[in-house]
From TrEMBL:
<dbReference type="InterPro" id="IPR020018">
    <property type="entry name" value="Motility-assoc_lipoprot_GldH"/>
</dbReference>
<protein>
    <submittedName>
        <fullName>Gliding motility lipoprotein GldH</fullName>
    </submittedName>
</protein>
<dbReference type="Pfam" id="PF14109">
    <property type="entry name" value="GldH_lipo"/>
</dbReference>
<keyword id="KW-0449">Lipoprotein</keyword>
Length: 158
């Protein structure tokens, strides 16, 4: 019986290991995502010669009232270069079914940000994410975005 338990524990350990992961951090929201709240992720330069894929990880629940989300993502390089992207991601099918993964009301979305990139500069990088959601026809944005539980940033080795 002890030997079976040991093998099961080893199998779970190997299954849960993620060999591609270089960086993976999350920021949680207690009561929705405030429009003024920019979430920053700081990381050191990974191996310069390797190539990487970058992702935004987003967890939402059924109180998220939209089928898409607009994000403004800013990558800051150690020597001062800044790349800013405004991106739209689909969150639900036309029939309202969530696209994310999960068995409960909470869905995990792994959203492509950039692919096959290198980090040529030595030092600390940062990625800042904020939402840019607004209702159709409204000039002002949504102050508090409900249904977003966590936002994360992930770097995977290609």
């Amino acid at each position: 019986m002890n030997r079976t338990f040991l093998w099961m524990a080893i199998a779970i350990l190997f299954i849960s290991c993620d060999g591609k992961q270089v960086y993976d951090e999350y920021h949680s929201f207690s009561d929705g995502w405030d429009a003024k709240e920019q979430v920053s992720f700081k990381f050191e330069q990974p191996v310069e010669s390797d190539r990487y894929d970058l992702f935004v990880n987003l967890r939402n629940d059924n109180s998220f009232p939209f089928s898409n989300i607009f994000l403004i993502i800013e990558m800051n390089f150690p020597e001062g270069k800044v790349i800013t992207d405004t991106l739209e991601y689909e969150m639900a099918r036309p029939d309202g079914e969530w696209l994310g993964k999960g068995f409960t009301d909470v869905k995990e979305n792994k959203l492509w940000y950039k692919e096959n990139i290198t980090f040529p500069e030595e030092g600390d990088y940062s990625v800042t994410i904020k939402h840019a959601m607004r209702k159709n026809g409204d000039v002002s944005g949504i102050e508090k975005l409900p249904g977003i539980l966590d936002i994360g940033f992930r770097i995977e080795k290609k």
